[in-house]
Amino acid sequence: EKTQSRLGATLWENPELYIENSPVFNLDKVNTPVLILHNDEDGAVPWYQGIEYFVGLRRLGKPAWMLNYNGEPHWPVKWQNRLDFNIRMEQFFDHYLMDAPMPRWMKRGVPALEKGILQGMELDTN
Question: Are 58 and 23 contained in the same domain?
Fold first, then answer.
């Protein structure tokens, strides 16, 4: 067990160690707003783990958002996706650190069928 997690034991040898180190089993302790970037072609982290984390946070009523750029690896490489992510990240931090109004994508989301059509980057001043 000398991979990225470096836990030193297999799951069968020490299951408690895996539970202790799993972000999913510690979601109830999250108090900071979370912006997750997790793309479906990520070769480093399985895509479903990002979804598990996001859904768990939302089910607990935690402030969490997940951005996914289809066909992108661990980090966006297409220019339009890089720009989109940078704008959304700036809006996220502006809202939480500078008290800027929450943009529409954070307040109401962007339905999957409208992804790429409806951006939701305008500030929601209502």
Answer: no
Q: In this predicted model, what pLDDT tens digit does every residue of 44-85 receive, in sequence order?
A: 888 889 999 999 999 999 999 999 998 999 999 999 999 999
Question: What CATH number should be reported for the domain holding residue 102?
Answer: 3.40.50.1820
pLDDT score, position 108: 84
- Domain that includes residue 17, residue range: 1-30
Residues 23 and 36 in one domain: no
Q: Are 65 and 36 in contact (CB under 8 A)?
A: yes
Q: Does 78 share its domain with 67?
A: yes
Residue 124 resides in a domain: no
Task: Determine the residue type at 79.
Answer: W
pTM of whole model > 0.85?
A: no
Distance of CA 24 to the CA centre of its chain: 13
